[in-house]
Design a protein that fits this description.
Blueprint: H1 11-20, H2 48-55, H3 57-71, E1 76-82, H4 89-98, H5 100-112, H6 115-129, E2 131-139, E3 142-148, E4 154-158, E5 164-169, E6 172-177, E7 182-186, H7 204-226, E8 229-234, H8 241-254, E9 267-272, H9 278-296, H10 313-352, E10 365-371, H11 376-391, H12 401-407
Antiparallel strand pairs: 1-10, 2-3, 2-7, 4-5, 5-6, 8-9
Helix pairs in contact: 2-3, 2-7, 3-6, 3-9, 3-10, 7-9, 10-11
Length: 423
């Protein structure tokens, strides 16, 4: 299947589309409320965790960096494996030749739906909301596109025997999507209800405190440091009530810091010197920052933060890769293999090889999702690149993808902006 792609629209429009749903797509309904759209600044009615992601730069940086290193840093390969593990080497070679077209077909579909971007967005959204779902659009039985659903609206409907009956949407109890119509991911799923937990939930209070300090307290402190409060006492004896009110209004309007004013009435000014504990606030912000970084388990150097001991950075990166990243990749891998690769394999066997396998029977071949392992030394070098990107305001995904490609050291002539048809 070939799908003509348009010109790359840029990171911000593309990410908004993937995070919050396509515009004009032939889908079943609205995927996100007005308050949760990427362009909305109605924070009061937003999902609490999504509001934190939108308003806290450090949370966003940690979350996007985790998603980048889990899904984009090394990429992935698909591998065809035999269900029968007793095959001889000669039989394995024959098997691989026989099912090579299956791998090619799966890879083509992955390219058509931008699976690498889907997995990145899935990791971001499930980290925010605890779950992420994508409606599978098809032409006939062939998948053609994956459209992101509004995570808070989608709810798995579980049968009494704990099997999945489908998915409800927008708080309507009726099943809107059948199990095979959604590619679904959870984050830290502890029970059989297929509901996950948000990574932001444990630090909501910390993020609220940071927001209050940075967006409310500091602006007030800065203003009072250079323009202290002044209590003005005016002698309005002999003035009528209306004249007195007008005089006081004019006095307040004229009494601005740095301005010279003159009055023909007796006015006494008392300056109130409010000494804010700037050092204490800065230390509090630093403590809150450490709590957030620790919550996401991300090494400091990967988000552009200074490190105290560079000698331990290599070991820290290895622990991060084999811990946080490995866990995220493992759960993504299992979801994709079960919900995406297995149906594609059944479809290929039926249409191409005329082999119809009953749903309850084991397939003779399976497609596995293999993440390419990122070496710690590569992450160490990449961390400096990521830090430089953050410092320049570009982050791990700048709008200019060509520039990112060049920064990562890849030949410019090999850059593909997505405008070519899959081959």
């Amino acid at each position: 299947m070939n799908r003509q792609k348009g010109r790359w629209p840029g990171l911000v429009p593309a990410t908004r589309r993937w995070l919050f749903g396509g515009v004009g797509a032939k889908v079943r309904g609205d995927y996100i409320s007005d308050s949760n759209r990427a362009g909305s600044d109605i924070y009061g009615s937003m999902n609490k965790d999504y509001k934190v992601f939108r308003t806290d730069a450090l949370v966003r940086r940690c979350l996007l960096s985790n998603a980048f290193f889990a899904t984009m840093a090394g990429g992935f390969d698909t591998v065809v494996e035999a269900t029968d593990k007793s095959l001889t080497p000669e039989q394995q070679e024959t098997f691989q030749e026989k099912y090579a077209p299956l791998k090619s077909a799966v890879d083509e579909v992955n390219r058509a739906v931008d699976m690498d971007q889907v997995l990145f967005v899935a990791q971001v959204k499930r980290s925010i909301f605890g779950k992420a779902g994508f409606e599978i659009l098809r032409r006939g039985r062939q998948p053609t596109e994956l459209i992101p659903l509004n995570s808070p609206k989608i709810t798995p409907k579980i049968n009494p025997n704990w099997s999945l009956a489908g998915y409800t949407y927008d708080n309507i109890d009726q099943v809107k999507y059948q199990p095979d119509e959604v590619l679904y991911f959870t984050n830290i799923q502890l029970d059989a209800d297929r509901e996950g937990l948000s990574d932001i939930e444990p630090i909501r209070g910390i993020c609220d405190a940071r927001y209050e300090i940075l967006h409310e307290n500091f602006p007030e402190i800065v203003r009072t440091l250079w323009a202290p409060y002044v209590i003005l006492q005016a002698d309005t004896a002999g003035m009528t009530l209306s004249a007195e009110d007008a005089f006081l209004v004019d006095l307040l309007a004229a009494a601005r810091s740095g301005k010279s004013i003159a009055f023909n009435k007796s006015v006494t000014a008392t300056i109130v010197d409010m000494k804010a504990d700037i050092e204490g606030l800065n230390q509090m912000l630093q403590d809150l920052k450490e709590e957030i970084i620790g919550n996401f388990g991300i090494p400091r150097l990967l988000i552009g933060q200074p490190i105290e001991n560079r000698a331990t950075a290599y070991a820290e990166l290895e622990a991060y890769r084999d811990g946080v990243i490995a866990y995220q990749q493992r759960s993504l891998k299992r979801a994709v293999e079960a919900q995406w690769y297995e149906p594609l394999t059944r479809l290929f066997l039926e249409k191409t090889m005329e082999i119809k396998v009953p749903e309850d029977d084991t397939l003779p071949v399976v497609v596995k999702h293999h993440w390419r392992k990122v070496q710690a030394r590569d992450m160490l070098e990449m961390s400096q690149v990521v830090a430089n990107l953050w410092q320049s305001g570009l982050g791990p995904f700048p709008d200019n993808r060509v520039r990112l490609w060049e920064v990562m050291g890849f030949p410019e002539e090999e850059f593909d902006d997505g405008s070519q048809e899959p081959t």
